[in-house]
Amino acid sequence: MIDKADKLIALTFDDGPDSTTGKLLAILKELQVCATFFLCGEHIRSFPNEAKAIADAGHEIGNHSYDHVYMNELDEEAIYKNFDRAEGAIVEVTGKKPPFIRVPYVSYSEAVFKVAKNMNMPVVGCDVIGRDWEEAVDEANIVENVLASAKDGGVILLHEPHEKTRAALPVIVNALRSRGYAIISVGDLAKQKHMTLQAGVCYNVLAEM
Hints:
This protein is α/β, with parallel strands linked by helices.
């Protein structure tokens, strides 16, 4: 579902799937929001039904590596094997090749971008960061962090496993909608912004060129 709105922002979740994925999917269904999930291959192997449920619910799935390592510590061949292995897990469960990659820990390197280009994959970063992985950050902080940096064409980064993130999500969505935003997937944001994302290029914000 794409809301009619003057401002657009993409919602993304990293590090899934896991045992709590169903809870997050139920919240997104109630909110009528389609998001992009950047999944790790080893988690897909552990929770294949949850990964399939994400796809079956109509959400977009991106590649977040196989085992969430620091890519800037790997050579080109190892980076390729890691992302390729994750892609294999995604395709096996969903039947679709992921359209984007997101690099764990923002651990970019020249080799990472070269591999992404050779795999014909744009790299999706973020610029609206909930910081929900930090222990000291609570539900209210997550809401504040997202709303403080939200912008048209922005990409929100949240993470699947946290209860506080699920609690913050309805507040974030309702607040953004009250400010005139539509909350959509990365792919839909690119389409709405009339952008063709280039392989090997990192996008933190999606704005018309």
